[in-house]
């Protein structure tokens, strides 16, 4: 599960970012929860009360009389002693690089936000955090099923069928060959079978 916070006082941008993230996490088959905040005070208060976030999208400039994203980042790092949350700053301007150095953000996205760059950031976070090692997709009938590569023990080929052995003890059978499955994974956006042990059982 990835716990995400979006903090931006522009409600339209916050809503659009939330929808984009939901689509990305569903595409990657990652369980997630997203909270949206409209002020740095609100986010910091929630964290002070015990809320945990793995990935935080944080605007830099808020309305007057409001702490800005740089201050909020320092509160998260220094006051709450949270050095594990990945912070992604978002802003209309690019002039804040030096101010953000000591906060060690994961990335900086410039508005208007680009969906591809948002997905790149999410993928980078998942890889850095070790939560994601790729997705293996296969078909049963007309349905496409996706599982995390880390949940696969091994893939077994038996006659014209493939048997997927999962970490929870379950097995999934579907028609195909290891060669075809490997080529499809390498040519698609999901990856990668190269890390999955494979067994070939010859028919009697």
Q: What string, H for helix and E for strand, traces the elements in order?
A: EHEHEHEHEHEEEEEHE
What is the makeup of the main sheet? 5 strands, parallel
The overall number of domains is 2
Helix content: 25-40%
Low-pLDDT stretches are: 188-195, 200-204
Mean pLDDT over the full residue set: 83
CATH level-4 homologous superfamily of the largest domain: Response regulator
What CATH architecture label of the largest domain applies?
A: 3-Layer(aba) Sandwich
Based on CA inertia axes, which overall geometry fits?
A: elongated
Going across the major beta sheet, what is the strand order? 2-1-3-4-5
Can you describe what's shown?
The chain is of the alpha/beta class. It folds into 2 domains: 2-129, 3-Layer(aba) Sandwich (Rossmann fold); 135-201, Roll (PH-domain like). The chain is 32% helix and 30% strand. It has 6 helices and 11 strands. It is elongated, with a radius of gyration of 21 Å. The model is unreliable at 188-195 and 200-204 (pLDDT under 50).
